[in-house]
Amino acid sequence: MTATTTPQSPSAAPPVEQLLQARGVVMRFGGLVAVDGIDFAVNEGEIVGLIGPNGAGKTTFFNCLTGMYRPTAGEVRFLGRRLSPRPQAVTKAGIARTFQNIRLFANMTAVENVMVGRYCRTRTGALSAILHGPRYHREERETRERAHELLAFVGLGRSADHLARNLSYGDQRRLEMARALATDPRLLLLDEPTAGMNPQETRAATELIFRIRELGLAVVVIEHDMRFIFGVCDRVVCLVRGKTLTEGTPDQVQSDPRVIEAYIGTGSASESHASPDVRTSADPPATTEQPGQSDGRAPADEPTEDGEQR
Question: Which residues of the chain fall short of a pLDDT of 50?
């Protein structure tokens, strides 16, 4: 008797794994509802854009995803497991982020900044670190080597020994990405990675994001530069007043009259395409800051959005 098998179609794509799933996320600050019941998902290897006018709740939502804020309601799951609303737990689970306002250790070198990100993956105990035992020396050497590799990957190989505060603005943005990558994430969240960049730096950032995706990572990007967003993302989600206005491919979102109205009040699709960069002079410049913890309230130098209240 001959067994028969059904051949697999050579064109059948492998199943795509869902990395992140947020359900009904709400974030209230007193009587202000900054995030209002957002459902959001990210698949493996996907680049997703998160857009919306100032005050839409984008950065607040990022803070809910990464444990900086404890959501008032809803849940966030990563690889099927509910995430603890603590930044260190989120990082160890495989999610890394950069910040709207650059948060580097200004008086440390570039390589030292990246090494800080790597320490969440080391296993040296307190005693070995104090006594500088064999494991400490081995992991310190491996951490430094990995930091140099990541600096080269983002194009800062020659700046490894430069203080972070002495780097150009665009290089500081890339350094923050390298530090995030040092945590070995599967999902990278970028909060306005091209803010303040010139066109050449923006093109370099676009190429870097594509190379990050080639490493097997998924990426979520907050941006106001529509030309950048629609050129780099597979899918775009638009938030308005803490809620999801629309979601779809770049072509679908940029032609949606509701998105155009959300940004410029009223106007035609042709007017929107003529001016795809909706960044305004009201957007704050990024500054070099020290990393900080959040207890659910925003740091003094970064007020919460009104939604984002920047």
Answer: 1-7, 9-10, 267-310
Cβ atoms of 188 and 212 within 8 Å: the answer is yes
CA distances from 215 to 21, 45, 117, 199, 210 (A): 21, 9, 18, 25, 9
Q: Are 194 and 228 in contact (CB under 8 A)?
A: yes
CB atoms inside a 10 Å sphere around CB 123:
7
Strands, E assignment, the chain? 18-29, 32-43, 47-51, 73-78, 81-82, 95-97, 187-191, 218-222, 235-240, 243-248
Measuring CA to CA, which residue among 264, 286, 268 is closest to residue 176? 286
3-class secondary-structure state, position 122: coil
Q: Give the pLDDT score at 157.
A: 95
Do the Cβ atoms of 22 and 68 come closer than 8 Å?
A: no
Give pLDDT, residue 275.
39
* Token output for 160: 């490894």
Q: What is the pLDDT of residues 13-68, one digit of tens each?
A: 556 689 999 999 999 999 999 999 999 999 999 999 999 998 899 999 999 999 99
Measure the CA–CA gap between 154 and 123, rounded to whole angstroms.
26
Domains of the chain, first to last: 18-108+185-274 (3.40.50.300)
Question: pTM of the predicted model, to two decimals?
Answer: 0.78
Q: Which of 104, 108, 98, 42 is nearest to 68 (CA)?
A: 98
Q: Map residue 307 onto helix, strand or coil.
A: strand
CA-based Rg of the chain, rounded to a whole angstrom? 21
The pLDDT of residue 303 is: 41
Angle, helices 169-181 vs 134-153, to 10°: value is 130
User: With DSSP H G I counted as helix, E B as strand and the rest as coil, what are the percentages for the chain, rounded to 5?
Assistant: 35, 25, 40
Cα 291 to Cα 107, 120, 236, 310: the distances in Å are 13, 15, 29, 18
